[in-house]
Amino acid sequence: MKRRTFLRNTAIGMTTLAGAGLAGLKAGALQSSEAANTDVPAGTNSDPKIGRPVHVVSIGFPIAKPLPVPEIAERVDQEGSRKPDIIVLPETCQGQDAKSEEPLHGPTVTAMAALAKKHKVYVAVPIDRREGSSRLNTVVLLDRSGQVAATYDKVFPYWSEFDLQPAVSPGGMPEVYQADFGRIGFATCFDANFPEVWNHLSENDVELVLWPSAYSAGRSLQAHAINHHYYIVSSTQVPDCIVYDITGDRLLHSQEKGINTSRITLDLDRGIYHQNFNIEKRNKLLKEHAADVIQEKWMEEEQWFVLKAKRPGVSARELARQYGLEELRHYVERSRSAIDRRRGWEFAEKARISEKNLS
User: Fold this and answer.
1) For 119-130, what is each residue's pLDDT tens digit?
2) Are 13 and 235 in contact, with CB atoms under 8 Å apart?
3) Residue 14 pLDDT more than 60?
4) Any idea which of 124-138, 152-166, 321-335, 338-352 has the lowest mean pLDDT?
5) Distance (Å, whole) CA 285 – CA 271
6) Where are the chain's structural domains?
7) What's the CA angle centered on 317, arms 148 and 7, to 5 degrees?
């Protein structure tokens, strides 16, 4: 999706920039709300009735000697019985060598599809995929009925993947999938180094990014969470799992020898906002819906704040939209578009480094 299309779909139009001012940033308007909410835990949600919780399981393991499919299936079966919403496995979970290629509906996906159907859970299955004459590093998303819902082909394969016979082909435009709990997208391993993949996910309003990988990435993932304000959950061959909040805060880092299993519940209804043009609207919302919505977090240095629901049946993000609050990444994209329009050309397009400068 192009930025222009993305901007047309945001809730706040261009008139806000022209008509709003900075008056809402008066210190007096902030003091009462900021001081009241400093002890509210951020990012996770242990109450299945509040907000829009999604229960995520990450199962990571080394692939130097890949686990047999039945052993992976046993782990997925165990976790599926806990009734999560989605389970994610590590990059090319059956290895990536001369013998690991398999078709989309090969043994790994077939086994996981049966479990997805059994437990009514989404499962993200990364495989070394053969598609016609192409070899692809693919994440296969199975839906709750065990059907293939989406595929993601690694956009930026690592150098060693080009040494395989046949070599791994780079993927095309990533799919974004509307699950029953929210919008999810994928990136894989070396993709962590390329902002355009993560920009695309943001422009398509992804709320949760699943990142199967061979390594941990750490701050590289954190930067994307900070810049784009979606949750990121990894599943690696290290094996470990890192989870980043929409604020960029690290919510979880677990690591084990052998097999690492991590479980976390994330509230996709939490919204992050800039102070600019939002404070007076926020104050009115919190005053009129004090029993419904709380300011969970105040980030003074960044001038951001996070709103979340306080009770079942309430959507904090929907109420914020009704009161005219603009979510942070929409505000940044709208600002970029407005400034480019004044400039007369798109800065991002002209700022790209051409191949001739990469000698």
Assistant:
1) 999 999 999 999
2) no
3) no
4) 338-352
5) 13
6) 3-43+270-348, 53-267
7) 75
How confident is the model over 170-206, as pLDDT tens digits? 999 998 999 999 999 999 999 999 999 999 999 999 9
List C-alpha distances in Å: 122 to 102, 110, 111, 233. Answer: 21, 14, 13, 15
Residue type, 117: K
Q: Which CATH architecture has domain 53-267?
A: 4-Layer Sandwich (3.60)
What is the 3-state secondary structure of the chain? CCHHHHHHCCCCCCHHHHHCCCHHHCHHHHHHHHHHCCCCCCCECCCCCCCCEEEEEEEECCCCCCCCHHHHHHHHHHHHCCCCCEEECCCCCCCCCCCCCECCCCHHHHHHHHHHHHHCCEEEEEEEEEECCEEEEEEEEECCCCCEEEEEECCCCCHHHHCCCCCECCCCCCCCEEECCEEEEECCHHHHHCHHHHHHHHHCCCCEEEEEECCCCCHHHHHHHHHHCCEEEEEECCCEEEEECCCCCEEEEEECCCCEEEEEEEECCCEEEECCCCHHHHHHHHHHCCCCEEEEEEECCCCEEEEEECCCCCCHHHHHHHCCCCEHHHHHHHHHHHHHHHHCCCHHHHCCCCHHHCC
Q: What is the mean pLDDT of the chain?
A: 88
Q: What are phi and psi of 11, to 5 degrees?
A: -75, -25
